[in-house]
Amino acid sequence: MAARIGIFSVFVAVLLSISAFSSAQDLQIVNAERRIDLSSHIVKAFLTLKVENIGKDPAAEMLLAFPPTQIKNLAMVQALAITGKKKKKTYLPLDVKPTEQPDAPNDTGYYRVTFISPLGPGETVSLEVLYILTHSLEPFPVEITQSESQLVYYHDSAVILSPYHVKQQTTFIKTPSTRVESFTSIEPANRAGKEIKYGPYENRASYSYTPVIIHFENNSPFAVVEELVREIEISHWGSLQITENYRLTHGGARHKGVFSRVDYQSKRSVSGASSFNALLAVLPPRVNSVYYRDEIGNISTSHLRTGFRKSELEFEPRYPLFGGWSATFIIGYRVPLEDYLFEASDGRRYLNFTFGCPLVETIVNKLTIKVVLPEGSKDPSAVLPFTVNQELQVKYSYLDIVGRTVVVLQKDNVVPTHNVPFQVYYTFKPIYMLAEPFMLVSAFFLVFVASLAYVHIDLNIVRK
Ligand SMILES: *[C@@H]1O[C@H](CO)[C@@H](O)[C@H](O)[C@H]1NC(C)=O
Ligand SMILES: *[C@@H]1O[C@H](CO)[C@@H](O)[C@H](O)[C@H]1NC(C)=O
Ligand SMILES: *[C@@H]1O[C@H](CO)[C@@H](O)[C@H](O)[C@H]1NC(C)=O
């Protein structure tokens, strides 16, 4: 019997793999438009695809392919299905997951996009895909002086890498300025102002790849946080305390030669064009007790604007950051608990806070978020729209009896699109709220008894 089930499941598995394989082959891309935005150091690519099922069976999903050099720097892939025409267009988010294919040519990496409903034979669907690449602009020259502008290389393919035949496609690449030193020309290709256009190209076979290199000026701040640890402490006594530890680096061309502060301050437009000294953090509305300090102490060069929907903290490190330089600092603030802590319908409590990094247009190589729950919290579980590493720790602070549960969320390669709400659910018995006052009372009582005893002993000594 067991053997029969075994054979049967092998048979099913074979069937499934055949159908998955055939669906991968039986799609074609009728039309593709790709817009790659190179204006900051975070590369954003928008793909509009019209996909047709040219097979005999319904297709439930499609594959997006990426060359190995991009797969390792891919921070996010999102897809939307477009339904309706012109003005009545609606966008529905689709499930997108990294996946592997057994016979991937040239180490191609894949993401699987699941359609809302299977695409019938002869049917088409329009999709919008956004993908974001980090660390994909390579400074060249690798070292520049204070007076030089920063030039970088961007490598890609003039045609979209795809496991499907692409009937027609065009790619537009936007550069931050009109200074483009060179770009590979694949006919038809042309450049006008800040835009380079590749295509239209007709009928490219699956896995077509035509490497191109673009060499251009990019002086946008290459703000890379090598490591960010955000601690979010929930106190049932009314506030959420957030403490953020940053190690920030300028990820652009390395600075060479001496740094002249005089040049930097007097000729700001030409001197240190690629450096940055002002940072902007977007903090929650109703933020209070904001501080900004480093290992030396408090830094006063910061301005806070609180608003109805968000607050903005503008601040400056002690020195401007040039390529390869780094700065470590801490930002701390409080927000009212009632804005972020709620009760779910099942009686559990939950924190609803923003993931990611508050600094604008910043890449975080390694992000750790520690949610410190109140003492006595149980069964924590985190809900996020993408995968992160999770673990539990215990933190002890003064007056804690059993310690506090800390939910640790860790993710690499984080970009601003990861700044979305996440939740941490937990159960909590209000009786534990009495634990701290109880400890305080007991402490006072102990001190009282001790001093009484002391006085008593003292008196005894006096009597003798
Ligand atoms: C793999 O890469 C080689 C060299 O870059 C290229 O000639 C070949 O066509 C590629 N194969 C496929 C299936 O893309
Ligand atoms: C730094 O600023 C914080 C908050 O404003 C304040 O509580 C603290 O005393 C300051 N520390 C020093 C060393 O000035
Ligand atoms: C979390 O907060 C966001 C707005 O900040 C809201 O849109 C979302 O519905 C909230 N999620 C839950 C589960 O409460």
TrEMBL record:
Belongs to the OST1 family. Keywords: Endoplasmic reticulum, Membrane, Signal, Transmembrane, Transmembrane helix. Pathway: Protein modification; protein glycosylation. Its main location: endoplasmic reticulum. It comes from Arabidopsis thaliana x Arabidopsis arenosa. Subunit of the oligosaccharyl transferase (OST) complex that catalyzes the initial transfer of a defined glycan (Glc(3)Man(9)GlcNAc(2) in eukaryotes) from the lipid carrier dolichol-pyrophosphate to an asparagine residue within an Asn-X-Ser/Thr consensus motif in nascent polypeptide chains, the first step in protein N-glycosylation. N-glycosylation occurs cotranslationally and the complex associates with the Sec61 complex at the channel-forming translocon complex that mediates protein translocation across the endoplasmic reticulum (ER). All subunits are required for a maximal enzyme activity. GO terms for biological process: protein N-linked glycosylation via asparagine. This is Dolichyl-diphosphooligosaccharide--protein glycosyltransferase subunit 1. One of its GO terms (cellular component) is oligosaccharyltransferase complex. It is found in: Endoplasmic reticulum membrane. Pfam families: Ribophorin_I. The chain crosses the membrane at residues 438-457. Residues 1-24 form the signal peptide. Component of the oligosaccharyltransferase (OST) complex. The lineage of its organism: Eukaryota, Viridiplantae, Streptophyta, Embryophyta, Tracheophyta. It is a single-pass type I membrane protein.
